[in-house]
Fold this sequence. Notes:
197 residues
Amino acid sequence: MSRVYFTITYLPENCDVTLLAGRCIGILHGFMNKRSYNHIGVSFPKWTDKHLGNQIAFVSEDKAALKNLSQQNYFEMMTHDKLFEMSALKPVPVDTPEVQIIRDQSLGKLFIGEKRRRMERAKRRAEARGEEYIPQYVPSDTEISTFHKIPIASKSNQNDFVLHLRLEQADSIQNMYNSYGFATNKEYKGSVPLLTY
């Protein structure tokens, strides 16, 4: 089955593209969770190593679901207020390179704040078991490829968090994504076309 997509371009100059991407991804997340659905992927047509770009795209084989997503209130309001420009549904061009945009939770574990949070949690668990907590420092020689961070506001538990995303070439088309529209290191292998303009 052929895939279709639509793009949203953020129109304000000098806007926080990661914040707007996070809000768009939040809309997709709610849309997919409500329907127990995981067949819409997210692509960033203007992704570079330095910048996420001012555009997001949603891709699927399910034209009706994608049309329904494009009609969500937030998208329509932002388009009406001339903050977003939304394209019509278009077919994915043949011979477009395929990539995976991977939500890599292991990247978050490399940052000091996350390390501190994990240590505090380990300490609470040890104390709950009646044990003394002795932190272990294990140096790591992790090589980190280019990635982007997108802040997400959680509606379920009111805790904000960050999606760490990296891009890899894909060998084939896969259509299973996590509830944010991305591939993961293990379970979801969804790919999206590299829509460049």
